Amino acid sequence: MSKSLFPKDPVLPQLQIAWNSDLMLEAFRKHLQPFGGANYDITNCKVERFRYRRKLRSIVLYQLEIVDKKSDVKKNIWLTGVIYPGERANRVYKKLIAVHPWSDIPDALLPFEPISYLSDLKMTVQVYPQDRYLNNLPLLITGPPPQLEKFLLDQFGKGNWKMDQCRVETVRYRPQEGVTLRYEVDSVESSTQEYQKKCFFIKVYRDEGGRKTFDLLKELYLQFSSGKSGFTTVKPLAYFEDLRALILEGAAGQSLEDIILEDNNAHAAILKSSAALAAFHQRKVDLSAHRPPEGTLSRAKKAGDFIQWALPNLRGSVEELMKKIEKEMQVISTCPTHLDMKVDHIFLGEKGLTFIDLDSFALSDPVFDAASLFVRMEMLPNLSSISQSKIKTMSEIFIEDYFSRVPYIWRKRFSVNYACAALKVALYHVQHQETKWSEQVPLIVNKAMEGLCFQK
User: Fold this and answer.
1) Which of 40, 186, 25, 57 is nearest to 123 (CA)?
2) Helix ranges, 206-265 (H)
3) Nearest-10 Cα torsion for 206, 209, 213, 215
């Protein structure tokens, strides 16, 4: 991206460099020092995600492609850069260096010094898995510690199970907030030599939010696990206080996203998904979590404000869109709502359909879920070779079948929820620097303005 693409921040002028992948490639080549005998060349740099509070701070997640000078093997690593006004970043750096928080991280995972300070940018840099707010991550990044290993082996059933291998993959990383790890565990029963594989997901939190999420998911699973409605929710297994880690059973089957992209009987999968989502929304639940539609409006406003800052030429369009959203937002009776519904948050397997990643679940306007899934489906051609016409057909099949299964009055709320969901996706494009994001975001906003909805 060009150096001047974003407006300047007079308090943090160095952001014009920090958000520029090409300039940061040169900065990292200059400043990062090898760690533990490693010797790597940095061949590429990408801004993968950033968070920004004007005049206060910016947190930037970079993905570097590095090449081992000896073996010529390539791999990708994450770096997090944090910028504050004044000398705060330098004070943070000195505080971290003094306590050596990376002592539990294997040297093989750290090609460069785990913590650096780029004085020209007043930026503290941490090499993943070093994260000052996720102190327990080093204990989990290469496999389960003893207390967790015993618990995972208990999930294999009766017998004397021994762990043969545990493959660890980082599925998602949000700097200073949390990490999701995928454990693929191979285990052998000592007496019978029976061999099994199981998949677990480990969510690591910076605070006790994991406990709250565990309690919520446990309630949901107890109420939805019968499968009589054509779906279930992801099964929470435990929460380890000392690790701040939530343990989840891996959902069986294939994600709706993969099914659509591979065209693996996608039509049937879409109909199963629309039916399950409609049933999920109309299920009576006894839960305390409640997020009224005003929450959706508030998040839309925040997204709209950020988009207007990033693309000032859209200010008039976004302001007009926000006025229409505020005018059309209705007071409703709330229902179970996922609030982060995506094509990769639905899994379909032989035993049925499972909704995953319900951390944001609340009683709210369920049409927001349908609109979110619709918008995400529309975006799939940007991520793959699937045609726009095929996705258009699939999206329409999904939304028409969904509205055929819910109260008719819900259809009237699709337009406003589509607009809110579209702004959320547009914000994602900006913060993650998606390909041609500065071209895609105006298109997304225009679609919301045109009212691509089904008000029949």
Assistant:
1) 57
2) 209-224, 256-262
3) 130
Nearest to 358 by CA among 240, 172, 213: 213
Give the sheet arrangement for strand 236-240, strand by strand.
161-174, 178-189, 195-205, 245-249, 236-240
Would you call 76 exposed, middle or buried from its count of C-beta atoms within 10 A (0-12, 13-18, 19+)?
A: exposed
Nearby residues of 385 by Cβ (< 8 Å), 6 or more positions away: none
d(CA 293, CA 413): 11
Q: Is the pLDDT of residue 293 over 60?
A: no
Q: How many helices (H) and strands (E) does the chain have?
A: 14, 16
Helix (H, G, I), strand (E, B) or coil at 414: helix
Q: Please, are residues 214 and 235 in contact by the beta-carbon 8 Å criterion?
A: no
HSE of 215, CA atoms in CB hemisphere, 13 A: 8
CA-only gyration radius of the chain, Å: 23
How much is the pTM?
A: 0.91
Between CA 103 and CA 391 the distance in angstroms is 49
Does the domain spanning 138-249 belong to CATH 3.30.200? yes
The strands making up 40-53's β-sheet, listed across from edge to edge, are 40-53, 57-68, 74-83, 123-127, 115-118
pLDDT, one tens digit per residue, over 199-244 is: 999 999 999 889 999 999 999 998 888 667 789 999 999 999 999 9
Q: What is the spatial distance between Cα 303 and Cα 421, in angstroms, rounded to a whole number?
A: 10
Characterize the bridge pairing of strands 362-364 and 236-240: unpaired
Residue 255 confidence (pLDDT): 96
Q: Which two tokens stand for residue 61?
A: 């997640």
Alpha-helical (H) ranges within 100-178 are 137-140, 146-154
CA dist., res. 201 & res. 235, Å (int) = 10
Q: Return the pLDDT at 341.
A: 96
Alpha-carbon gap, residue 128 to 126, rounded angstroms: 6
| Domain topology for 254-450 | Aminoglycoside 3'-phosphotransferase; Chain: A, domain 2 (3.90.1200)
Q: Characterize the bridge pairing of strands 123-127 and 115-118.
A: antiparallel
* Sign of the Cα pseudo-torsion (138, 143, 149, 155, in order): positive
Whether residue 163 contacts residue 150, with contact meaning beta carbons closer than 8 Å, is answered with no
CA dist 380 and 374 (Å) reads 10
Which H/E stretch holds residue 428? helix 414-431
Domain positions in the chain: 15-132, 138-249, 254-450
